[in-house]
UniProtKB/TrEMBL annotation:
Lineage: superkingdom: Bacteria
Localization, UniProt: Cell membrane
Pfam families: Polysacc_synt
Transmembrane domains' residue ranges: 12-32, 44-62, 83-107, 127-151, 163-180, 186-209, 221-239, 259-285, 311-331, 343-362, 374-393, 399-420, 432-454
Database matches in InterPro entries: Poly_Biosynth_Transport, Polysacc_synth
Broad class of the protein's primary localization: membrane
Entry protein name: Polysaccharide biosynthesis protein
Source organism (scientific name): Galbibacter marinus
């Protein structure tokens, strides 16, 4: 059974994602119009540049979820308190490192972007870098409090606070830009909202959950355990930055900021796709840790893996199919024909990520069993090769060459990981693919049937787009319902309000 906290956390996660995506859909063209495509490209490029400092979290947040969940399962309160104290000592060192490295990066801004940015853009870039360095140095240790709540399987209130944060942030963005704000103003808003969120999470963890952070002794074995676990989480975080943000820097060295803006729109839409899946998968790392501590059988792990994967796949296929069918029209209505190339970028990203996102619980199990080192090596190698080849291809084929190479190596990485999960976790991947094939066939059937039907919708504009999405949604639901098991059908029925159910 799925606990109320997980159900509530998942629902609030989707509420947050729905709100942020809808707000993002509304705000992005407003931001582009207010800033201009060129300054929007500058804003995303500098965000990508400083964003690399966030990987210096070294996966400590994931370590907190894993180890606190472990200490709670073992009822070792003293060990938990000491672990958290040691974690914050490490965080202090990380924040100092961020400030030092960020300052060095600041000194080289002229050398890196002096040829592609105007003097005014370069001055704005320097101000944004300073603010973002402070933001990252504070946000990384502040994230520990959210991780503590996750480890305590307290999902609902943090998710609710996060939802409020996004809503307030969106309102402030509209107001500030309306009164003539620029990209620097957006960076300031993000920094202030992050600080408020950290204070709220600290209050929840320390006063509501009554978590104690108490230093007893600096155990070398504990520090090494944190390091051995975190270093590969750090590698995975670095990979994420390389895949989705390094491209903006590569393009920034060779192309004008308008090209970067188009590429950024594709990456943004691709990130929305990943967010819908992670809303569920992010709630299950404590579950994976508990299964590991209890030494659950491979059969139980396989069944849980497939159960979570199927739920994620239903959501991912719906978004993927909808975007394939109406994505061009959506981008045209959303940000205009200037960004039409973003459609192909987005489709490639979505297809490339579908297997990875739907199987993310396997990654949680690898982390819980401390067997994610191999995945870190594989994904880092694949990403470095993909980015290197993409850089080369971008010189002659632009952004499409870059993203095609990255996606191709994502597929190669996933093939290797199927073998590894079968070997190390003893998850029956053949059973998984047999189960997955039914969903894939129904998805393709829904896609093929819907394509000609959407041509019957003659209404233009946003209304026509929503009609097409509704038509595809109805066809998709009918097809997928045929392969749902009893548990999934019951879950669907539970989501329907009692007042709408047919009484017998």
């Amino acid at each position: 059974m799925i606990s109320k906290e997980i159900k509530g956390g998942a629902l609030l996660s989707y509420a947050t994602i729905f709100a942020t995506n809808i707000v993002g859909i509304v705000l992005t063209p407003y931001i582009i119009k207010s800033l201009g495509a060129s300054e929007y490209g500058l804003y995303t490029m500098i965000g990508a540049f400083v964003g690399y400092l966030t990987v210096l979290d070294f996966g400590i947040n994931n370590s907190i979820i894993r180890f606190v969940a472990k200490y709670r399962a073992e009822k070792d309160k003293k060990g938990e308190e000491n672990f958290l104290a040691v974690s914050f000592i490490i965080y202090a060192i990380i924040s100092l490192t961020i400030i030092i490295l960020g300052s060095i990066g600041y000194l080289y801004l002229d050398d890196l972007f002096g040829k592609t940015l105007t003097l005014e853009q370069l001055n704005k870039a320097k101000i944004m870098v300073v603010i973002l360095i402070f933001n990252v140095a504070v946000t990384i240790p502040g994230g520990a409090f959210n991780a503590i709540c996750m480890a305590y399987e307290n999902f609902r209130l943090p998710k609710a606070i996060n939802l409020v944060k996004y809503i307030l942030r969106s309102i402030l963005v509209v107001v500030i830009l309306f009164y003539g704000g620029d990209s620097i103003s957006l960076v300031i808003i993000d920094t202030v909202m992050n600080l408020i969120f950290i204070v709220a999470m600290a209050y929840l963890a320390l006063y509501k959950l009554k978590v104690k952070i108490r230093y007893y002794t600096f155990e070398k074995t504990l520090a090494m355990s944190i390091f051995h676990y975190s270093v590969w989480v750090f590698v995975l975080a670095l990979v994420n930055k390389l895949r989705w943000q390094f491209g903006q820097l590569v393009l920034g060295l060779n192309y004008e900021t308008t090209i970067i803006a188009i590429y950024a729109v594709g990456i943004t839409l691709g990130s929305y796709y990943g967010a819908f899946s992670s809303a569920i998968s992010s709630l299950f790392l404590p579950k994976a840790m508990q299964m590991t501590v209890k030494s659950e059988s491979p059969q139980v792990m396989t069944e849980t893996f497939i159960k979570i994967s199927r739920i994620s796949t239903y959501i991912l296929f719906f978004i993927l199919g909808g975007f394939i069918l109406v994505g061009r029209q959506f981008i045209h209505l959303w940000v205009g024909d200037t960004f039409r190339e973003a459609y192909l970028f987005t489709v490639l990203i979505m297809i490339g990520l579908t297997f990875t996102l739907s199987q993310s619980f396997g990654n949680d199990l690898l982390q819980a069993k401390n067997k994610h080192r191999f995945r870190g090596i594989v994904i880092l190698t694949a990403t470095l090769l993909g980015v290197a080849l993409g850089w080369y291809l971008s010189l002659s084929h632009g952004a499409i060459g870059l993203i095609s190479s990255i996606v191709a190596f994502i597929f190669l990485e996933r093939i290797v990981m199927w073998w590894y999960m079968n070997k190390e976790l003893q998850i029956n991947m053949l059973y998984y693919f047999k189960d997955f094939s039914g969903q894939l066939i129904c998805f393709l059937v829904a896609l093929v049937i819907s394509y000609p039907l959407l041509g019957l919708v003659t209404t233009a504009g946003w209304l026509g787009l929503f009609c097409k999405i509704a038509l595809f949604g109805a066809m998709y639901s009918c097809c997928m319902y045929q392969v749902m098991n009893r548990t999934e059908k019951r879950l669907v029925c539970d989501l329907i309000p009692a007042s709408l159910k047919v009484r017998r």
